[in-house]
């Protein structure tokens, strides 16, 4: 199986450790991972801001880089969702279509394709899970609290395989953190308030670490935590599973 | 009532200046969301009901013309008079004409978001008709000279102390009394006199049944019913999209409506008005105001399925932390943000951006409107129509260049990280909105790509 | 009439194909011996009082115990209280208690259906200070789908579901029983309405 690692733009630049952990984790699980070296971005920041019509070149670059793989895996639910729903290429639509049907977020890939049921990881801390909206409601990585339907969580199931980890409960299991792309600056007041409220939920339930599948959410929460000079840290799920 | 000239971000920022109040507003509405969840979980077939409701409404939208004609035929045969209005102005004129013909200058009105959409109260007041809103929440905002902030809970933004003050001023209740029971009883007595003295009653319409020509009005307070039954003239105002095909479909919608709105199994009163009593008048005013136009849009027509339950507002993390008034439109929150740009794009271009696209709204919507998808699509339309700032356009064009060309991406990224590491004070100014309340992310010396090439080489796939 | 034609014309233009068919209605639940108890429990939870009894004698006894001599009691049940003679709605302003017969109750939401002849006078269920309704034990259906089966294609002028006393939570989400309609509602579930 030929797998390509799709590294979100801000992860490549600001959180390389998340991509390193994802790469190492996949390799530990026996996957042969290629890293296309000319990838940039999935185009979501522009599209969500109303500028989807500008994303043609970005999309073409994406297709060029990720054509010809069995699976494309990324440590980001929102980027994967965007590609799944919006990747088109005037130049090579069949390649785009193949990519749309074979792109996976990391925990999805581990659960659905690799069917991981044990991990040598160890992370003996109290951890709160931030269920990123796009991964959850878009990719159905875990059940949504609004629905009358059986509970499940691919994220939680994977984390439960980690030795020593203690997963805390939250008052509001899946409320949005307030990052939302350009929303984080265009509606700064609400964005910050939403983030602060999420943190309060985690902190009052004793979280030492906050984890999730999207570094964008975690970056926003980390910004707030550090401003509060909190000792709580954010950590991407890839890093915990690879620990 | 003064129209706010600010946009959502500005109004939301002002709302957030009082953090304890935001917490109170947020917790109160989350409580309503939790009540909805509890009620929905008591109905094992809840998701099937949503799907059924959504399909029934989709069918109605595909056949709206036929169903409206059927409704009109049956309503008229029952003794109702059916009026058609293309615009809010026309709607208001029709309503005023009916009131004038009845020789009345004071009327009672129960909750109707449609009349808010048409600014009916303002129109009638300008034309010498006194309007008494009889829903308690609506009466409160009326006395406060404000618009309702929520379509089901009109004064959810008001604390009981504020309501107590209002009642002290307008109803003569004792100063400082903020007890909900006492205040409600005072409102009951005060409004009772208005009910008894009014010969014309206006109501909204929750559902209009094509098969039987009847309309259904749902309330908890009984104000719609008391108003109508004491009056000689009943004017029911409805959007053309409120039609449902058959009486038995009410079973689906009434099972979903109150549970979605407030977590109750059903509203106290679900009244089916079909035939006026001899000697009384029953008028039904059907309003278009852009609905027929919206129907032509494959992307946006599903918003017409809305049954005005307000569940989307209760779950929206942005609405809960910015309040209905920051949406500066008659219907706020997620559903308002996909309806308002269609009515006036210039004034409402900010609304689809007042969202993180979290998708919670679409999940609670009893008729499965794809609200968050429509929010995204409206953003594309708004930008294409030019309702965006030149700064934003420039920023996005720059971003496009950076993200389209790998070499540009790499060098821009490297530069940004260099500046963050070596000249962090550059990022410390007011214009850096991120940094007002958040630390900047730390900037590593190496990007992932740098690390990969260093540790794994450029081998193979690139 | 111009707007009517304009709107209908616009709707004609908006018509698209293929059209979504009207979905089949289905039943999700079945009648069960639990329905009566569920109905009573639900109604109590939404602020109603429920009294079980054999006949209307239970109702008469209740009124005797709870309402003073001078109370104005208007009734749609001939053997209890004053019959509504005036057709002038305002003349019922001072009614303390109204007694109405319900056709059936709905277990899932505690609502009682009544129409025209059972409402007796349209203003009565709303203008009274207190409301008593009477329903037969064998007339409880599981949910609204069954309810509308029972309503059928009846040609009423006014039909209504009443679920408990009037209420509001408009002031800071504090539930207050007694808004503009009746302040209390007592439902008698009788073996027979005689």
β-sheet strand percentage of chain B: 5-15%
User: What general outline of chain B do the C-alpha atoms trace?
Assistant: globular
User: Based on helices, strands and strand pairing, what is the structural class of chain B?
Assistant: alpha/beta
Main beta-sheet annotation of chain A: 4 strands, parallel
Output the strand order for the largest sheet of chain A.
2-1-3-4
Largest sheet of chain B: 6 strands, parallel
**Order of strands side by side in the largest beta sheet of chain B?**
1-10-7-4-2-3
- Reading the helices and strands of chain A in chain order gives EHHEHHEHHEHEHHEHHEHEH
| Average pLDDT reading of chain B | 95
Notes on the structure:
The complex is a heterotrimer of chains A (243), B (462) and C (194). Chain A is an alpha/beta fold and 243 residues long. Chain A is built from 13 helices and eight strands. In chain A, α11 (188-204) packs across α12. The longest helix of chain A is centred in the C-terminal third of the chain and has 17 residues, at 188-204. The mean pLDDT of chain A is 95. Chain B is an alpha/beta fold and 462 residues long. Chain B is 51% helix and 10% strand. A six-stranded parallel beta sheet of chain B has the order 1-10-7-4-2-3, sandwiched between helices. In chain B, strands 8-5-6-9 form a four-stranded mixed beta sheet. Chain B is globular. Chain C is built from six helices and eleven strands. The N and C termini of chain C lie far apart (53 Å). The chains are: A alpha/beta (243), B alpha/beta (462), C alpha/beta (194). Chains A and B meet through α1, α2, α3, α4 and α8 of A and α1, α2, α18, α19 and α20 of B. β9 of chain B pairs antiparallel with β8 of chain C, so a sheet runs across the interface.
């Amino acid at each position: 199986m030929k797998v390509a690692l799709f590294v979100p733009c801000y992860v490549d630049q600001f959180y390389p450790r998340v991509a390193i952990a994802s790469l190492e984790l996949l390799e530990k699980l026996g996957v042969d991972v290629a890293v296309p070296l000319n990838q940039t971005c999935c185009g979501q920041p522009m599209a969500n801001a109303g500028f989807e019509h500008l994303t043609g070149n970005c999309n073409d670059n994406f297709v060029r880089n990720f054509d010809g793989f069995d699976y494309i895996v990324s440590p980001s639910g929102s980027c994967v969702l965007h590609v799944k729903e919006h990747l088109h290429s005037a130049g090579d639509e069949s390649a785009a279509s193949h990519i749309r049907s074979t792109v996976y977020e990391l925990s999805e890939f581990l659960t659905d394709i690799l069917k991981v049921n044990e991990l040598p990881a160890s992370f003996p801390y109290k951890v709160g899970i931030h269920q990123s909206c796009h991964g959850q409601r878009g990719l159905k990585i875990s059940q949504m609290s609004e629905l009358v339907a059986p509970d499940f969580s691919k994220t939680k199931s994977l984390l439960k395989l980690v030795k020593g980890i203690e997963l805390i409960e939250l008052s509001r299991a899946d409320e949005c953190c307030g990052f939302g792309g350009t929303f984080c600056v265009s509606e700064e007041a609400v964005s910050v308030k939403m983030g602060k409220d999420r943190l309060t939920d985690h902190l009052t339930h004793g979280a030492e670490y906050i984890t999730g599948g999207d570094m964008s959410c975690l970056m926003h929460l980390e910004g707030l935590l550090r401003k509060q000079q909190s000792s709580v840290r954010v950590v991407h799920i890839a890093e915990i599973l690879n620990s | 009532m003064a129209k706010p000239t600010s946009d959502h971000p500005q109004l939301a920022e002002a709302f957030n200046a009082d953090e304890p109040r935001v917490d109170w507003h947020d917790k109160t509405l989350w409580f309503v969301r939790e009540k909805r969840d509890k009620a929905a979980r008591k109905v094992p077939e809840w998701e099937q009901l949503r799907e059924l409701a959504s399909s029934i409404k989709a069918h109605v939208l595909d056949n709206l013309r036929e169903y409206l004609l059927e409704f009109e035929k049956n309503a008229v045969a029952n003794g109702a008079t059916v009026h058609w209005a293309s615009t809010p102005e026309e709607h208001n004129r029709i309503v005023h004409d009916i009131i004038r013909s009845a020789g009345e200058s004071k009327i009672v009105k129960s909750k109707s978001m449609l009349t808010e959409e048409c600014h009916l109260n303002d129109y009638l007041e300008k034309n010498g008709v006194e309007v008494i809103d009889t829903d308690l929440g609506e009466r409160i905002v009326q006395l406060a000279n404000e618009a309702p902030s929520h379509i089901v809970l009109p004064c959810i933004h008001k604390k009981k102390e504020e309501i107590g003050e209002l009642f002290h001023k307008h109803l003569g209740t004792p100063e400082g009394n903020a007890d909900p029971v006492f205040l409600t009883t005072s409102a009951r007595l005060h409004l009772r006199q208005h009910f008894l003295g009014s010969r014309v009653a206006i109501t909204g319409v929750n559902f209009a049944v094509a098969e039987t020509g009847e309309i259904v009005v749902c309330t908890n307070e009984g104000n719609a019913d008391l108003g109508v039954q004491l009056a000689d003239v009943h004017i029911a105002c409805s959007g053309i999209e409120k039609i449902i095909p058959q009486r038995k479909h009410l079973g689906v919608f009434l099972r979903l409506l109150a549970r979605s709105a407030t977590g109750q199994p059903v509203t106290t009163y679900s009244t089916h008005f079909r035939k006026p009593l001899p000697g009384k008048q029953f008028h039904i005013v059907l309003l278009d105001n852009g609905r027929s136009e919206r129907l032509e849009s494959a992307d946006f027509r599903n918003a017409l399925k809305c049954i005005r339950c307000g569940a989307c507002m209760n779950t929206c993390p942005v609405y809960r932390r910015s309040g209905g008034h920051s949406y500066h439109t008659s219907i706020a929150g997620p559903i308002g943000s996909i309806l308002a740009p269609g009515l006036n794009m210039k004034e409402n271009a900010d609304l689809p951006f007042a969202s993180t696209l979290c998708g919670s709204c679409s999940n609670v919507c009893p008729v499965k409107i794809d609200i968050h998808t429509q929010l995204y699509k409206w953003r594309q339309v708004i930008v294409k129509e030019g309702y965006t700032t030149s700064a934003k356009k420039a920023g996005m064009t720059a971003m496009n260049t950076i993200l389209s060309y790998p070499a540009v991406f790499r060098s821009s990224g490297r530069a940004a990280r260099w500046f963050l590491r070596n000249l962090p004070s550059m990022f410390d100014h007011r214009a850096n909105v991120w940094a007002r309340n958040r630390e900047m992310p730390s900037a590593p010396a190496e990007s992932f790509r740098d690390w990969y090439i260093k540790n794994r080489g450029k081998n193979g796939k690139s | 009439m111009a707007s009517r034609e304009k709107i209908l014309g616009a709707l004609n233009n908006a018509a698209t194909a293929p059209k979504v068919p009207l979905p089949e209605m289905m039943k999700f639940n079945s009648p069960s011996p639990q329905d009566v108890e569920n109905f009573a429990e639900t109604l109590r939870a939404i602020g109603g009082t429920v009294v079980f009894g054999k006949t209307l004698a239970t109702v008469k006894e209740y009124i005797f115990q709870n309402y003073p001599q001078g109370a104005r009691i208007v009734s749609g049940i001939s053997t209890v209280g004053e019959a509504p003679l005036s057709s002038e709605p305002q003349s019922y302003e001072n009614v303390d208690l109204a007694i109405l017969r319900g056709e059936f109750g709905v277990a899932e939401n505690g609502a009682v259906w009544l129409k025209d002849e059972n409402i007796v006078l349209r203003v009565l269920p709303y203008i009274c200070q207190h409301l008593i309704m009477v329903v037969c034990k064998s007339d409880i259906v599981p949910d609204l789908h069954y309810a509308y089966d029972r309503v059928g294609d009846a040609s009423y002028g006014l039909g209504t579901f009443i679920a408990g006393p009037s209420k509001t939570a408009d002031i800071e989400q504090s539930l207050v029983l007694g808004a503009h309609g009746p302040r209390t509602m007592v439902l008698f579930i009788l073996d027979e309405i005689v």
